[in-house]
Design a protein that fits this description.
By secondary structure, this protein is an all-alpha fold. The chain is about 70% helix and about 0% strand. It has a two-stranded antiparallel sheet.
């Protein structure tokens, strides 16, 4: 996994190098790099590569490009999520948010530029498997747009009422579903079964994030906590309480493990998911069973 982490970071740095140069305004170039590097846990790009490997993928360049695109889009969503019109967050990943460091206008443009860079990364890839490339491009686009991508998930916060499952399915589940589908598609497998697995895993991740927001430590998380309550947003904790939210995470993880499609590396992949899942909840709350 350390080797995969290094591979992802190198590929992200290569993608960001396209944004640097005398033609790019200096503050925008700096903000783009700050928004991506240093990064978080890189859960979504790691998921792309892990699925592709489990499927016995033979096009590692396509899988890596898909992983980079997914992570750039995730970083763009974080920049936009921290804007004053949404969370108005002062910190992200343990440092000032892009809005706090560069102002709202640069933050909007940074998120926009990262979205474009994600698709530019896919467009720059030498095409070995045209059908797979088309599938990956479509899966990435669906994960971030409307009606069921992360843009729609953010838009739920602008509605007078929010259905919690739909909110989580789009706000977080969509990009996890897209990441899993991209990994499968890059390896020549069907997208639908992996999309279903990824959506369930993403909903588990969002429920765990709700718990962290309610009872987690801001320093350890690298971002403000208590935002759901402060902004009166629906959350798993508000709906079920902490204990009920923990049970919800565990139930979703069991469902996700059961939904892993048949593939050459299924058993090893399930063990990897289970191992990483145990890191989702604050210390003392995880009871994920093998």
């Amino acid at each position: 996994m350390a080797a995969k982490a290094d591979l992802i970071e190198t590929a992200l740095e290569t993608a960001l190098s396209r944004t640097r140069g005398s033609d790019c305004p200096e503050r925008l170039a700096e903000a783009l790099t700050r928004a991506v590097l240093p990064g978080g846990k890189r859960i979504r790009p790691r998921l792309v590569l892990a699925v592709a490997e489990a499927c016995g993928g033979d096009d590692r360049e396509l899988a890596l490009a898909g992983a980079v695109a997914i992570e750039l889009l995730h970083c763009a969503s974080l920049v936009h999520d921290d804007l004053p019109c949404f969370d108005n967050a002062a910190t992200r990943r343990g440092q000032p948010s892009i809005t706090a460091a560069y102002g709202e206008r640069i933050a909007v443009l940074t998120g926009d530029a990262l979205i474009v860079l994600a698709f530019e990364t896919l467009a720059a890839l030498p095409i070995r498997h045209p059908a797979r490339c088309a599938g990956v491009l479509g899966a990435v686009a669906r994960a971030v747009g409307a009606p069921s991508g992360i843009a729609a998930g953010q838009a739920w916060e602008c509605e007078p009422s929010i259905e919690l499952d739909a909110y989580h399915r789009t706000k977080t589940g969509a990009l996890f579903a897209g990441a899993a589908a991209v990994g499968g598609l890059a390896a020549g497998h069907e997208a639908a079964p992996w999309h279903r697995f990824g959506e369930i895993l993403g909903r588990a991740f969002q429920a765990a994030d709700d718990i962290c927001d309610a009872v987690g430590d801001a320093t350890a998380l690298g971002k403000p906590v208590g935002r759901d309550a402060a902004l009166a947003r629906p959350s798993t904790v508000a709906e079920r309480g902490v204990a009920g939210a923990v049970s919800r995470v565990e139930g979703l993880l069991e469902d996700a493990l059961a939904a892993v499609p048949d593939c050459p590396g299924r058993d090893a992949f399930r063990k990897l998911v289970l191992r990483d899942a145990q890191r989702l909840l604050p210390a003392g709350l995880a009871r994920v069973a093998a």
